[in-house]
Design goal:
Rossmann fold, 11-stranded mixed sheet, 306 residues, 11 strands, 23% strand, alpha/beta, single chain
Length: 306
């Protein structure tokens, strides 16, 4: 039993990437799963796992949460046993892909337990699947992905999964190949931009987008075009080519419109933290994008100490 109340099962493996090279950064990722067929497609995607290896992830914690109102002793119910067996199958597949793995079956509120495990293992990344956008999901704030977007203290990757099909797969198999970075030039956005220091190993194309709104202070300083050009130069130093675009209007609407225009693998943006007031505000740009985006979203929050 671990300090977070989980029941870990682990087997160590040698740390090799898909090309036989050792992982560079030794990063740890938590992958949350509800053990559905959609979630299985996320965990067993060889392309997705390869993307994680390329950005330096070599340790995975597979987590599934049993709802607090479900008890293993209920007639016909064997949730925890079945979940442990499913996680063993996932673990074997992921270890074969070159990762060291621990599995956790925990009970409680999903986003709280996922955040707790991420903190206890010192995770660099949390990954969760989402069935994509629908009018209902946009209104239901209790969804795990959206609650994680509101409360996560480590970078969160929302991996979009197909809806309404018998055998769902991930919508964007390559997690970071084509990245759209949305920036308001804030400290939070700069922190998200620095993620390219490791994402660049799995990235080929970058689109830099800034949305001007009526609330922007346009007095003095360089304009958004010049500031985006500076970011593009920094990406060039990392060996990445970038295009830039300034849009005008509502930030969330325009970011999603840019996603539709450029069809990136992943949207990258920063969030503004997890204060109590912020958790009550449902209209933040980052949460809106997580709820409505067609593809993957990589959300970078302030650091744990903030």
């Amino acid at each position: 039993m671990t300090a977070d109340g989980a029941e870990p099962e682990a087997r160590g493996v040698e740390e090799f990437g898909g090309d036989g090279s050792s992982a560079v950064d030794g990063k740890t990722a938590v992958i949350a799963t509800d053990l559905s067929s959609a979630s299985e497609s996320m965990i067993e995607s060889e392309t997705g796992l390869g993307c994680l290896r390329r950005i330096g992830v070599d340790r995975l914690h597979l987590v599934t949460v049993v709802p607090a109102n479900v008890h293993s002793g209920m007639p016909g119910m064997g949730f925890q046993k079945r979940r442990k067996e499913a996680l063993r199958r996932y673990r074997s597949r992921v270890e074969d892909a070159g990762f060291s793995v621990e599995t956790h079956v925990v009970r409680g509120t999903p986003h709280r337990r996922i955040n707790g495990i991420a903190g206890s293992v010192g995770a660099d990344l949390v990954m969760v699947g989402s069935r994509g956008k629908s009018p209902l999901e946009n209104r239901v704030i209790g969804s795990t992905a959206r609650n994680l977007a509101r409360t996560t203290v480590v970078p969160l990757l929302v991996d979009r999964i197909e809806r309404g099909v018998d055998d769902p797969g991930t919508i964007r198999r390559h997690l970071f190949r084509r990245t759209l970075f949305a920036t308001d030039f804030s400290e939070n956005a700069e922190r998200a931009f620095r993620s390219f220091e490791y994402l660049r190993h799995a990235t080929e194309e970058v689109t830099l987008v800034h949305v001007e709104s009526s609330k922007d202070d346009t007095s003095g300083g360089d304009g958004p075009e010049a500031r985006l050009a500076d970011l593009a130069e920094r990406l060039d130093d990392w060996g990445l080519d970038a295009r830039t675009e300034v849009r005008r209007g509502d930030p969330a609407d325009e970011i999603l419109a840019a996603e539709a225009d450029h069809d990136p693998s992943t949207l990258l943006l920063g969030s503004r933290g997890r204060s109590r007031l912020r958790r009550l505000l449902l209209g933040s740009v980052s949460e809106d994008v997580v709820a409505r985006a067609a593809g993957n979203v990589f959300l970078v929050p302030p650091p744990r100490t903030a």
